[in-house]
Design brief:
heterodimer, A: alpha+beta, 60s Ribosomal Protein L30, Chain: A, 66% helix, disordered N terminus, B: mainly alpha, Substrate Binding Domain Of Dnak, Chain:A, Domain 2, rod-shaped
Chain lengths: 307, 133
Amino acid sequence: MRGNFPVPATLIAILVLAGCASAPVANNSLGEAHAAYRLAADDPQVRVRAPVELALAERSLAQAERSWRDGKDAGLVAHQAYLAAQRSRIAQKTAQYRGAEATVATSSEQRNRIVLEAREREAAVAKAQARTAQLALAEVEAEKRAQELGRSDARESEPPRKSERQKSAELAAELRSLKSQVADLKAQQTGRGWVLTLRNDLLFDSGSATLKPGAQRVADNLAQLMRRQPDRDIAIEGFTDSAGSIEANRKLSAGRAAAMKGALVARGIDPGRIDSRGYGPAFPVASNDTSTGRQLNRRVEIVINPS
Amino acid sequence: MRIELLPRIVASAEKIAIVIAVAAAAAVLAAGCASAPPPIEQVAAARAMVGQAQPLAAREAPLELSAAQTKLALAEDAMQRSEYEAARRYAEQAEVDAKLAWTSAENARAQRAAAEVEQGIQTLRRELGRRSQ
């Protein structure tokens, strides 16, 4: 950068100005201006990033050449050639620094792309792992079914069908026992069936969709309930409070519901029986204006469908 | 230069014709230089550009900056002596020198910033690559 500063050209120009020197010197400085201009003009980056500066250098060079052809005073020619050479160098440096600034400006975009690519890779790995787990699970289930089939063959007849009333009484009893085992679990009977509400901060760390150790126990109990109630499907729904972007919250709540579903599947529950969704800040159960309200809104709801 | 040469040349009587010729040429040149209008705008532009370049170029491009400063001083000197043509040329050169000093300094700064950003991205790429394996 500093190395190519034209000391000879400067000296020549100063000498020329001081003494109003001879024609060969003027010719020499014209040659130097030509070289400096070619260096800039042959660089495609200069044409793209500093076209105005390059055009100014070109005009300066043309002016110096005209003065020389017209037999103008050698000092003037050398002076104009010097200006042309310096303007060519300015064009080159301008293109270089604009290039560097463009690199800095696009870096955040590049950073985002790298993060996104990494996430996609991780998702693909997770998907492959889930598929392997599912295949293993299917094998286990097939084996179990074969065993049960053998057992029922041995039996004379099927047990008598349970009544609707009996079934719901059984479920209520199950939920009571679940409530006694899981702290802070709320169970309510609604139009959609039974809804269990779990507070997010018991299941997940803030901002994370990975189940905490305590949540694994909840999954154990829930899986047990689902095995005892084989003809009831469930829906797992994630919710957040209204802090932060809707889209990010929606993704986070969906990831948490999916994590809970994954824990149940890992415990041998058929994934087809579990629907998982994330709603983000939609459907709040309390006001988002108070911290207590926000805590109530950060939740996972498990809806147990009527059989 | 003319003043120093004069006595020596005068000593040679045969060269009086040459003395007259040189003196005439010098007079024409000086007159030609002096007849130009005072380059007030050019000197002001040079001064402004040197002022703009100074803070950054003092560290990043000291050679280019000092060339500009020297020529600006010469231009102001020539203005004092009413040598307007010389003043104009010095001022024009001081301005392009200062502009080059400023651009070189900006470039050095931007190249460093770009290198830092580049390195940050390399680090990120390495870390993410490790995590996904």
